[in-house]
Amino acid sequence: MAKIAAPKGVSEYFPDRSKHFEFIREVLIHSAKVAGYELIELPVFEDTELFRRGVGESTDVVSKEMFSFEDRGGRAITLRPEGTAGVMRSVIENNLDRGRLPVKVYYSGQFFRAERPQLGRYRQFYQVGIEAIGVADPQLDVEVIAVADRAFKRLGLKRYRLEITSLGDSTSRQNYLTDLRAYIAGISLDEATRERANINPLRLFDDKRLEVRDQLIDAPVLLDYLTEQSAQDFAAVQESLTILGIDFVINKRMVRGLDYYTDTAFEFVHQDLGAQSGIGGGGRYDGLMSQLGGQDLSGIGFGLGVDRILLACEAEQILLPEELGLDLYIVPLGTGEAALKLAEDLRARDIRVDLAFGDKALKGAMKSADKSGAKYSLVLGADELTSGLVKLKDMKTGESDSVTLSSLANELNARISRNGELS
């Protein structure tokens, strides 16, 4: 019978690479938690209209990349292609915006886009995101950026840069779009591209084709059209980033791939990832809440790509901290029940323990211990149970010490460094 393979373009993680994936995800989440962001758990599918209204009809995400279907009740449903619209729907529906502001939440999980698969671009991909809703303050913009930057630094990433810009408020955009449309009218575009430009001219700056990009070299730049307030806010963002020691470059032609962005927009780009160089980004989205039927409140957030961050860590040859993985591997010699009881007692003390199952001979069981990656191992036979003493072997040095079973947990905790773990 033929094997069944995973669907094309799906990213999946299994041992040992899944340890790297898990560690990266936890570092990203930890960085959000220490800044006061709380978990929001969202459905992986939503009403299709949420993304049409929230993300924008002119975006590639809505026009080309959504996995949409009709459920048994005849409702139009879409697998979530991004996180912000779903968060905003939940905030409105559950009246979170009626309490303390800003609402600060984080989320993680799978997202789906019907793209042409390649390294770093998948049809199912993983993100960690945060959203801060309800306060229009440039310092909140900077906090959001700092959450991501702190996580990247904790991972040890070095070869990335932060690109920022301002997409202006509604007045800035209106004045700019008048001149941009006049400019676009004088260049050569195919019918489909011109139709997209009629809906949202900014989408042209996201076009990857050289024949389009070359014609936009002399196009007007939105940064030259900022209102006084937008210009002041953007200056405040730059000043605070400098004070925090977060390096950045201004990208005058940055256009985020979703229509809801306003004012501050940013992207983290890694130099070793080729065409799929973006490891995360986001921005402010004033007006999105009211567009989805809620109050007219401001918001800002980001989505960080766990898949690409893992690729970036691998490109920089960043290794998992040695503290992760098993602490102890137990080899039972005819003492299966006692060994399992010992393992459970140690696990209750937050010590990571595995043991050999299936009555393996000593030689085979020790091979399993070697392959486990555990820091220590011990053999538990009848003699060890009678004497209350075991030989605790350091798997890195090969050295063994006698330790009493009653003091084993304390001895392991004293030896095992937890410096690489997240509180």
How would you characterize the overall build of this protein?
With 423 residues, the protein is an alpha+beta fold. The chain starts with 16 loop residues before the first helix and ends in an 8-residue tail after the last helix. Helices cover 36% and strands 21% of the residues. It is built from 15 helices and 16 strands. It has helices at 17-33, 48-55, 60-65, 84-93, 138-155, 170-184, 191-199, 210-213, 228-243, 288-291, 306-315, 336-347, 362-372, 382-387, 408-415, and strands at 38-39, 45-47, 68-70, 76-79, 103-112, 124-133, 160-166, 249-250, 262-270, 278-284, 299-305, 328-332, 353-355, 376-380, 389-394, 400-404. Strand 12, helix 12 (336-347) and strand 13 form a beta-alpha-beta unit. An 8-stranded mixed beta sheet has the order 1-5-6-11-10-9-7-8, with helices on both faces. Strands 13-12-14-15-16 form a 5-stranded mixed beta sheet, with helices on both faces. Strands 2-4-3 form a 3-stranded antiparallel beta sheet. The longest helix has 18 residues, at 138-155. The protein is elongated, with a radius of gyration of 26 Å. It folds into 2 domains: 17-169 and 227-315, Bira Bifunctional Protein, Domain 2 (BirA Bifunctional Protein, domain 2, 2-Layer Sandwich); 328-415, Rossmann fold (3-Layer(aba) Sandwich).
Report a brief summary of the structure.
This protein has 423 residues and is an alpha+beta fold.
Q: How is the secondary structure organized here?
A:
Elements: H1 17-33, E1 38-39, E2 45-47, H2 48-55, H3 60-65, E3 68-70, E4 76-79, H4 84-93, E5 103-112, E6 124-133, H5 138-155, E7 160-166, H6 170-184, H7 191-199, H8 210-213, H9 228-243, E8 249-250, E9 262-270, E10 278-284, H10 288-291, E11 299-305, H11 306-315, E12 328-332, H12 336-347, E13 353-355, H13 362-372, E14 376-380, H14 382-387, E15 389-394, E16 400-404, H15 408-415
Parallel strand pairs: 1-5, 7-8, 12-13, 12-14
Antiparallel strand pairs: 2-4, 3-4, 5-6, 6-11, 7-9, 9-10, 10-11, 14-15, 15-16
